[in-house]
Amino acid sequence: MNLIKLLYPDRCPYCNRVILSELYACHKCAEDFPDKGIETRAIGGYRCVSAFLYQDKFCEAVLRFKFSNYPQYAEKLAFAVKNALDNTETPDVVTFVPMYIAKQRRRGYNQAELLAKELAKLLSVPYEELIIKHKDNKEQHKCKSYRERRNNVKGVYKTVDKSRIEGKSILVIDDIITSGNTLGECCRLLEKAKARHISCATVCVVNK
Ligand SMILES: [Zn+2]
Question: Nearest to residue 51, comparing CAs of 79, 14, 10?
């Protein structure tokens, strides 16, 4: 075992116990995995597959991953997303919901980007940054009404290099889907840039 692994051993994202690096969850947490992915729709009707409901240990895993500086969970959470996708058609490329640059600097990483990178590796397809967030906005969960959530995501994202989007089947990754406005807006922009097929996947879905 190398020194890094000794100092920072792999942990089960769902309970934070130390586990063997080849495992994606401890045996106890793996027993609580749902049998199949949970299917919902982002705004605009784009299909979204999630690994877990946003509750209990799965919610805690995402919160630690996002806010408690556990970027090393990415590979294991991406494995859960891959399992949830199961028989879904493999995309040409995996991308992610971007974060506003100043916010990403504060956090040190974009959790959706780390998930997309790891998932792309597991699916053996490329990972690409296809959308940027060029304006900051209020956090979606702080918006009070449906209309405010809908309007809050307008005009803050844009696609980069349409030649990398046109004709491609694209899977867009985020950590959580709630109202589906953010993912829906990213999908809409990819569709506008002439992607052939667009779908989404997340670790958790908030039960509405
Ligand atoms: Zn566990």
Answer: 79
